[in-house]
Amino acid sequence: MKKVLLVWVVICLAATAWATDESKNKATERVQAAAAVLNEIQGAPDQGMPEEVLASAECVAVVPTMLNGGFIVGARYGRGVASCRTPKGWSAPAFFSVEGGSFGFQIGAQAVDLVMLIMNDDGMHKLLTSKFKLGADASVAAGPVGRHASADTDWKLRAQILSYSRARGVFAGVALDGAVVRQDKDSTREFYGHMVSTKASLGGATAAPQTAYPFLETLAKWAKEAAK
Known about the structure:
Elements: H1 2-43, H2 51-56, E1 59-68, E2 76-86, E3 89-90, E4 94-99, E5 110-118, H3 121-127, E6 131-133, E7 140-142, H4 155-158, E8 161-167, E9 170-173, E10 180-183, H5 185-192, H6 198-202, H7 213-227
Parallel strand pairs: 7-8
Antiparallel strand pairs: 1-2, 1-5, 2-3, 2-4, 4-10, 5-8, 6-10, 8-9
């Protein structure tokens, strides 16, 4: 009986460890996917985020594969990762989810890559909170597209957050009014091994683990290119 009990204990511990590793892999894969999205978008000639806009962004948030379902009205949900500028470079990543909201295009069920650029301190302070609503708590607008922003665009005055989406290879600015952004606590625990507040990670108080480097190095690369 004791042997049987011991076997069950070992099996349960192994299953728990496997589940934990799988969860960590999912969070890490999201970081890697966010880096890939940025590389693909900014690597496309004349179809990325304008260098002037990216160079001015305080934070960058990426949701690789956000689900947009339904016709006219549908469920929308995605999990993403964000980082902000600090005196020491780009911050440790913060994990968040985006739910609901209007995308400005509502036809068909599809998955989109979503990018949000937080353009000023007010927008950054909203991102540091555990939950806020785009369009209500923080102003949001579709961002300009192209290697350089046109001289007549007013992106500096338009919103605290500029948003973009990529679906089926088409990259464009997109409205996100009504979407709720909140901290993804499960992914945060999975990635760091314990709870880390959004303020601690994005504010620079938390050290970035090596698994965050693909995203942070990609951000640093494109931010440096944009600042030239």
